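INTERNAL AUDIT FORM
Audit reference: QA-55
Scope: verify that the stored structure record matches its stored sequence.
Auditor: D.O.
Record contents follow.
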Amino acid sequence: MLSYLCLNWIFLVLFTGPTVSELVVTGKVGQDITVPCHYSVRDRNSITSMCWGRDRCPSSKCSRPIIWTDGWRVTEQHSNRYQLRGDLHRGDVSLTIVDAREADSGIYCCRVELPGWFNDLLLNKKVLIMKARISTASPHTYTSEQTSAPGSTSEPSFTVTRTWPSVSASEAPQTASAPCSGTSDCLDVSANLQNTSVSLPSQQPPEHRLYIGIGSCAALLLILILALFLT
């Protein structure tokens, strides 16, 4: 009877295995992610070996191991991106993933080898690495329109437009001639130009008028001379 009970206890332990807890750790790409794992250290004799591995904790050791420690120092390391930065002598065996990537997402096993049969501390940690969100704001000009609600009384719709600040008149480059400010000014300028173009041919220089006077005097003298001959 006693042997039967012992066999049942052994089978129960073999098939059920040690108790395993599972937690979720989240982080972002490019950050250093720390996956916590601790065990109790009462004295120097309590310091023990442990390992970290990918996938869930198997019945012994670690599957796909990435880092090992004997409790005092790191004995094996799959990559420099996996580090134990905690105080090992106090049971802090938390795993730090340096420069996390999306491929680092998955299940990690922390296995602390404690004395006794089927007495190891097993912790399954689910790590989820997400991309960092980047928000960009557009500096372009935008227009917002506001209209009155249907059925409401008469408030006209208006438009508000935001633009970049304009250059002041004192900062603007000077030109040879300024454009006319309005339609009436432009019409006055064009009329003045037409009057000037028409009156220019009627104006005669002083030399031309002098020649006309001399010619008239000569004609009068010629007429007087002819009259003397006839008389």
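Auditor finding: record pair retrieved intact. The chain has a mean pLDDT of 74.
Action required: none
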